[in-house]
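Recall that a protein's primary structure is simply its ordered list of amino acids. Everything else, from secondary elements to tertiary packing, is in principle encoded there. The following example makes that idea concrete.
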Amino acid sequence: MEIPVPDSLRKMFSSVCFPAESKRAFLVLDTNGTIKYGSPEVGNYLCNDNNNPTLLIGQSVADIFPALQGDLSWPESIRSHYIFSPESDNGFEFEFVGWNRREGREVLLKASLAPLEIEDRRFFLLELFVLASEDNKLHKFLEVSEFNGDAVAVTTVDELIEYVNPAFEELTGYRKAAMVGRTHAVLNSGMQEPQFFVDMWKALRAGRTFRGIFVNRRQNGSIFYEDKIIRPYYNARGKMSHFIASGRDVSERIQIMHRLEHLANHDCLTGLPNRNLFLDRLRQAEARGSRNHEGFSVVVMDLDHFKAINDTLGHAVGDVVLQTAACRIRQCLREEDTVARLGGDEFSLILTEISSTRDVMNVVEKIVVLLSEPLAIDGRDIPLQASIGIAIYPEHGEDGHTLLKHADNAMYQAKTAGGNDFQIFEGKEKEHFIFSLQKKI
């Protein structure tokens, strides 16, 4: 049976625990967790009616905390170890979200539970301390962001911008007044894959942090690369309320990376793809051909008499010959085709969307005609000729490596026959076609 607390003892709670003028918020509990006293200030956080703490007396503290937050219950460990264990001399602290009725806002509270002895009777003192509110925490973050070198933007979960810092203004060229109420779409350059943003929103909506390189457009139209981290922000009730983005300009670093990548995949003299990039595109063509049952052709070209030009006229003239040949070949191809310099005077082509042998021959004949135009250097007309080999998918091979080897074999057969020829690969069971360019020109 519960032992009642005399009025005289209740009066002592306020004077023993805290002076009468104190604004501290606390409850006094018996060892069963029943509230025996509530300070005037505690009513501001725990009472629904006129902030009257006397209404709490007689209630179980386990019934009070679920009323504050639907998914919050008095911890089992506290009930069993601290409230129902009179011999306990330990304290206990935990945090929870409450409501400051006087100010009409959420607050983060810390509850401190400790044993209390009054007139040889054991009680527990549950004191509430107001921590920083979530609004104040966000406000303090924004104050610090004013001096942050990174570009910071805060948006609502509806994607509307609520705040940008001075670094954001400097990076994008947009003033804060022009950005508030808008979305980040104003920065979209249109150069990013749509899937990038699909992945971004999927991560953020799931409560995960997202980091990526954004290709953005400034107010003046210039493009910049931003390394940005976006984090979900949760309010005091644990609900996602904002997204906080912090980014910095990495355009110079990205440009250097692009330059290094270009150098790693392109020939320095002609600017054409090198062997690495050519083989990568060949693998792509092979995969596309297999998937879509689409024909394509591999063409290998070797300039005739290039060594003689180098030896007699010098390497500088030889370089001009290679650059001119690269330019003329490129003029005969579509954007989706590839021409690469594999080394020396050897060029390789990938012609896509080929439906017949005639399609390949039409392109090769254009190249031959354009190459044959004399190249004038220092008053000399230097003739350009080439030996060309052709292999077609899937007739001459079902993988890129085989096609390249067969095209190379066909090119050497054309060169052996005197050069200035193109030849389609001769399979063991296929008719051998040799087209003499001397007869066509």
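The two ends are 117 Å apart (CA to CA). The mean pLDDT is 81.
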